[in-house]
Amino acid sequence: MYPLLLLRKEIDEDHKALIGGKASALWKMYSSGLRVPDFLVLTTAAYERFVDSNGLRGRIALEFTRKSFDEMRWEEIWDTALRIRNMFSRATMPPELGQLLISGTKETFGTSALVVRSSAKGEDSANTSFAGLHASYVNIRGANSLLEHVKLVWASLWSDAALMYRQELDLDIEQSSMAVIVQELVNGERSGIMFTASPQDPGEMIIEAVHGLNKGLVDGEVEPDRWTIERTSGTMKEHRAPPARDIAVQSDNKGTHLAPLPKIKRSSPPLTDAEVHDVCALGLQIEQMFGCAQDIEWTIRADTLFLLQARPVTTFVDKDSNRQWYLSLTRSLSNLQQLKKQIEQELVPAMVRTAEELEGSDLAALKDGELAAEIENRQGIFNKWKGVYWEHFIPFAHGMRLFGQVYNDVIKPEDPYEFMELLKGEELMSLRRNRELAELADLMQSPSSGLPEDVANEFGERFSSYLTRWGTGDDEADVAGLKELLGHIGDIAAVPGRSGKTDVGLLESDFLDRFEGEEKTKAAELLELARTSYRMRDDDNIYLDRIEGQLKHALQEGLVRLRSKGIDWEIGPEEIMATLIDEAHVPKKRSSEIPAGEVRSRVHVRQVQGQPASKGIVSGMARVIRSRGDLFKMQKGEVLICDAIEPSMTFVVPLASGIVERRGGMLIHGAIIAREYGIPCVTGIPDATGIINTGDMITVDGYLGIIVIQKADAS
After folding, report:
1. What's the pLDDT score for residue 132?
2. Are 151 and 106 in contact (CB under 8 A)?
3. Domain 1-185 classified CATH 3.30.1490.20?
4. Is there a common fold for 186-324 and 607-710?
């Protein structure tokens, strides 16, 4: 029988496998006579007891049967982590385990504030540091809060960032477990970190320090002073001060918060030159103890330095820039609020101006060479804004993620996506666009004798305006297909929310009433930010699509001119420009799309599991979108099957009874639109357009993320 809890004085060499890497390092420093805050450890055996007593092991395993982990997009990984975190939050702490932890902390720390830290197997080893991927919580007070935060630390074993890291290092996800350190909070006046060998230059040591608690530095809310020291000589090579030392993270009975730094401290760095050298000397001592370069966290209270943790500086070089980009998406509320201001006040107005300027150009008046130059110009403009989209708009979409995590931790809802109900109902541009289509449809659906001249003129003007303002390409087939659709579809802008109303006011009150004072104000700000994030996750596609639409207009103008010269096959943008510039150039044919309606799969897959994205259950005939032309064949009540719902496809969504997408995640455009219209939706179905054919009968279960397929040719 393995111990569930170990006090600091009870730990020995035989316990390393039970207490994880971070706790092992703390114990070694303590055993060597270095000053560390008192601590105890909930062992990995306690994690196993908790998981087994709540039946979580099987439920977690099921999450990884939905889809091969290697094929999951970042949105799907986040969805998986969200569901698992909610499992832990809602689970019950076994009474004997809870009592053991409460009595142990009372005996060790009395009523002192605590820090709860992760200590997973393999964490902070020589090859895998996991720095910042698992959770730590500061200034925890009271038994109930302690138990809740221990569960959240356990849940962080399955965070999206941690899952991605484990995948890259080929670690066994299903066998992973987590010990938890409960540590006395040292309310330091000055805090920091040091690298005994810089990851960028092993010949240098790096120290970063802030006034107040280390949380401000680790979370990125307080910019630190930074010192660079030459390792062999101890010479200080550089001291870089932050632009301003005006805030610090402090703690009180209610938690931690950013507070103004007293003026007397603003002009002074957190460390003197002598203290910098003392920290360096201590760091080298710890490095020698562990036998490799160390990343050390420390704090100073009343001029006494306490070591909070130490872990190896790993030499692992992440070759996957996508993972590093994804990890950068985790933002604080204050950072997201700054990003919101930049997007609303600078970026969106600039995108609108850019689109309007391009719309004002008379492409028909340009000579062939000038048109080629304009196409190249528009390609550059679009690529620039596409870069802005990924750099600013995608990170802002994670305002929804931050709110969802806070909501679920506080409310503990049975449905981990309940928080989305508080975000729905925003005035999305896609919905406005569909309402305009409904008005156009009303104009077209006049008596069979034909449209009166005045109505026909009004329709023509409004239809042309629609194509321009919404960035819709003016490809002849697209325009003809859209007109045909408008002519026989009467409810293309069906009222959102067909699956029923939720009392959003009650949900909002219940959420905000869990907070008091400043915390309630922050919670309200977070909700407001999440609603903007939700709206912008849809709208940003429209803004970008409008700019791309102007590139498509220029390309279409080029194609029209080339067709008049006998070039009537599909060619790409580079070939269009080359042929406009040089009449003697013979363009290469571009590979054509898969013919619309082609049957690609003879495999009779009966049931597939993906990601639940919009609640409800529905059955209907499949309409598979394999080419642009398939969109215009969509009929009311069919189940829309596609790779992904792009902004330019939104007009057919109200016709669908259900939606199935290959691309997965709650944050993707298609999932958001499906929830607005109350349409059951399942995302993350591998090769959705390959295993399903138009005419198959499909059942979409938006609660469990399951689709059932009855083949049209099945006997």
Report:
1. 58
2. no
3. yes
4. no
